Amino acid sequence: MNPAVLTVRNLSVQTASGPGQRPAADHVSFELRQGEVLALVGESGCGKTKTAEAIMGLLSPDRWKVTADEIRLEGTELTRLTPREAGRIRGSEISMVFQEPLTALDPVFTCGYQLCSVFRRHRGMGRRESRESSLAMFGRVGFSDPERTFNSYPHQLSGGMRQRVMIAMAMACRPAVLIADEPTTALDVTTQAQVLAQLVELGRAYGTAILLITHDLGVVAQYANRALVMSGGKIVENARVDELFDRPRHPATVTLLSHAAGAVN
Amino acid sequence: MNFALRKLAHGGLLILGVTLISFSLMVWFGPDQTYSLVGKNASAEQIAEIRKQLGYDQPFIERYVSYLTDLFTLNLGASNSSGEAVSNILKKTIPVTIQLMIPGFILGNLLGIALGLLATYRKGRWIDRLINGFSVTSMSISFLVVIIFLQVFLCTPYGLNLFPVRGWQVTGLSSYLLYVTVPTLSLVFITVGYNTRFYRAVFVEEAGKDHIRTARAFGASPASILWRHVLKNSLVPITTRFMFSIPLIVVSGSLLIESYFGIPGIGKVTFDAITNGDQPVLKAVVGLTAVAFIFIQVLTDMIYKLIDPRIA
Amino acid sequence: MGSDLRLWGQLRADKAGMAGLLVVAAYFLLAVGVWAGMLGQDWSSAGGDRWASPGAEAWFGTNLLGQDIFQRSIYSVRTAFEIGLVVSVLSTLLGAILGAVAGWYGKTWVDGSVLWLAGVLDSIPFYLFVAAVAFALQGKPWAMHVAMVATFWTGTGRLVRAEVMKIKSREFILSARAIGLPDLVILARHVLPNTGHILLIQASIVFVAAIKTEVILSFLGLGVQDGVSWGLMLAESTQEVLAGHFNNFIAASAMLFVLLMGFNQLSDALQDAFDPREAAL
Ligand SMILES: Nc1ncnc2c1ncn2[C@@H]1O[C@H](COP(=O)(O)OP(=O)(O)OP(=O)(O)O)[C@@H](O)[C@H]1O
Ligand SMILES: [Mg+2]
Cβ(A47) to ligand 1 under 6 A? Predict the structure, then answer.
């Protein structure tokens, strides 16, 4: 078994204002191992995005209370980093692709500028060098005319293209871990398959472990090695994908499976 | 093309409305000048003659149409009270007002933007609360109180006695600074509260957008997020506020400052014209303000296109 | 009802807002005292020495006519509340009606006309407009009120219009229309009550604006015609301060500042309570 690149132990997320409410994530623990694709599945609103954002350190402390015994990325304990150190790791060692391609890119900068700034920040590249790397990266995620993509604003691209720009940004520094939050939910079916295939292939090529958040069990079956099932903020099942489909143990898993079957029929 | 036409029609309707309302108020219902122009013991014929000269004997529509015609042919006439050509008066006074208002207007906005950014950066912390307290305080103090206080504090022996009490004898840079400082400080203090509030609300809203989370996920520092992503995405509302307060600040704001400090700018001239019923001057000021509004709208639309790639 | 209670609870928890409410209530009591003839009645008699220092006779000293500054600043509370209440109630009402009609008939010529009127009023420099109204209604003591109401409604109007457009497409309105209730009934019974929070907040904002505007107008000679107000006291003081007499200035500015501060805090608290969006970000 490969060693763990990301270890999460007892991660809880609550709103800072109402600690009485049900937590968005409740003592979540799991390990993500080198080179694997780990799926995180669960019904809408069960806390998948909040878990991911908490790992990335994106939840602002005046709104959310995040507690964890351990969030370790390779050798580094993320909960103990200063903001500056965390900024150096985010986007280079661990990065994230977001659920909504429509709003996740800054509308007033070109896609090229946004990718370049990742290279500049984390690789210390200058203007020319970051431009060349960006063009190469756009080519790598399947743009036939990288030059054109470079100069486009997000609103000029289709949803699938925007999501590919996001993937290019997320994979630019060959991170150890990528969290992909329902990267294709907002896309049509053919684009979904292309974008996912691209993402997984790139992960394999770069040796990046992927935490793939989804509620599509077809996606899980096709791409993931293991799956976590989340329900009401808790991880209720943690199993190899084949086991999950053959012998679901938790009612939430059964529900998910029956929905998936219903969707197919 | 269609869009440009609609803009033009919109502007035309706005000018029509502004002139109609101002004309009704200032000319039709405004002060009657007959008796200040005829001598004592004038005969009925003399009075009728004057009224005819002033156009008082004509029906509303005709007077309004001739008012519009005068405005668009830039036939501004001469002031009733001083006899000076209105275009001359404008040429003399508008530059004074611009010199007087520009520093305070720009500083008030820049300070508002800076404080708004700082408050957003430290949202919910004590410095945000301090800035908010300062804004509310500034919003709770009357313009007149600020002017009186600054005048006493800076211009009289009861305070520091650094600047002239009133007037505008500007001959060069040093005299300009001497006369412009106190009005500028007043304007800054009075606008900074509202500006800070407005800009903070804009920045906080922008800072909550999804793409800001993306920038953070890719390791951007808070300073670069604020400076690059938040500020640049806020340029449209900033421009709108900045541009559309120009005519209001220039006319309304200068009216009080100029009356108080006895500065011969467009605000004072306008105010005197209202109180004297000096219609040619009023026509010119109101008409020009309306035109300035339209001009600013067009200019603002052009600026939008420069700063926001989504606006084609 | 339940939501009213929740809002009240939220307001109660807002310390600055509660302090503001207390200040406003205290001023209101003063105003009631003046109305009832118990306070500040001696504001116009010019008996004493001019520019007397504060003392047992006149607590805040006297002005250049020998009038008691304390009595005048107390009486001015009533003036301020009269102006604030009249202008805020009427302009909010006007804004509610015009905004609701515009929103209900959204994107038609009715809507267009209301927007046009608001646009026109917003593009006439405000003090110019007030001055013109004051002159058109020469000598009428309520010229100032008319001018303020005529211009202050536009903000409320736009907000109500937007809200009504939003409400209009909601389910319960659609069903009310489906069972054939007349437009006016739906507007009055189902739509306008849902804009209550906007109206309350706008009224508090306009109240502050009206009192501040009165000061400027009184200085320009277009404001309070008979009686006394903080604006008139400040206008008087513009001459006095240059001769070193500050009592009038200090009394009027302090009374004005405390009330405006209280009102602004209250207004902020109302906005936070009704619209927790920003607070929640
Ligand atoms: N801004 C917010 N304020 C308050 N509660 C929130 C907020 N965002 C999410 N929540 C709550 O947190 C819980 C978890 O939300 P989260 O976005 O993580 O769900 P999710 O599993 O990603 O769902 P989806 O599949 O729809 O994306 C939800 O129950 C939601 O009610
Ligand atoms: Mg989600």
Answer: yes
